[in-house]
Amino acid sequence: MMKKVLLVCTVPSLESYSIGIISAAFANKSINCYAYIFLDGKDQRSEKELVFAYGVSDVRQQVQFCYLATNKIIRFLSSSIYLDKVKRFAFSQVIQEIHFISQDIILARHLSKFKKFNLYYTVHDFVPHPAKLNFFQGLKHYYLRIRKDKYLMSQIKNLVTNSVSQLRALQKRYPDKNVRWHRMPTMLTNEILMGNEVVPELGEIEGYVLFFGRIEVYKGIEGLYREFINNPKLSKIILVIAGKGSLYFKRDKTKEANIVFINRFIKEKEVATLFKKAKLLVLPYHSATQSAITSLAYYFKKPVVGSAIEGLNESILHMETGLLYPPEQFDQLTSMIIRLYVDGHLYRKIETNLTTEQPIYDLFKLGDELAVIYQSHL
Q: Start and end of every Glycosyl transferase family domain (predicted)?
């Protein structure tokens, strides 16, 4: 009999990641997969739309959706109730293996509820990313996220990561634990694949350098912005910064003639348009454990220019799928961007690689890696 495994995602904002993992697990014939998915209380999608988004129409009876309270305080205080639902579902389906795939902040206080199960926990950020927070925000971030994440890493025997460098760090820190790696899932979802919604802020603009993702300090957006407003070599190239989040740096709007900010949540139906009209994707990160953003660029055949840090250099192959530059050296970032605009041969070579080569975000390979992980628990 195949082993039953329950995948649990308690963080709605990680939906694209969850869809990738769930799709790969359900596609693998060696895993008898179930899923328990928590949704934002404001999510107004119908059941039909949810089933389509997660691609689980054939296994609907093995998937549970649960809506979280819209009020964050009530949501936090209801953690025990939410996790009791997960536990009851696992018992009702006679499941012994539970994999929490989110960076989980509600599980730490109630881990004892699952002492009769074999648990797996995905570590997203072994070393927390730097963030620009005031004193009280820093305390909240530490006590509600970082400390709980560390506690779960210390208590759960089976740890999972998507980063090779993070795998080595975890094995060194926890030599007695079962630490396993699997590749990052793609961020492509059915909504993205079917989407063709116009991005109103773009108008007729195309052929631009694209930064896409939530605005965070560790992603190096300020350095990218400064380079575009100060380096005359980039004056005729348009930069589009698309993503939700606080713009933590001071802007000089008098120099933004070639910069477009789309500082809001980007709907999945808009993603295809955003990437199709771009020339390339840029990832000027200061730090990263992994990134699935490149999966979108590769699907739409767009080269990626990124800093050569651990995490990114696992997904960007220099001169093959994009270009890497030394971290923090934004003059080199400029050189790489310009090179892809002027060197048509190199651009076409990378475009061809992305068209013909086996993608690193392979659904079936990911499923095989998950199957191996579930066969080797402590």
A: 206-353
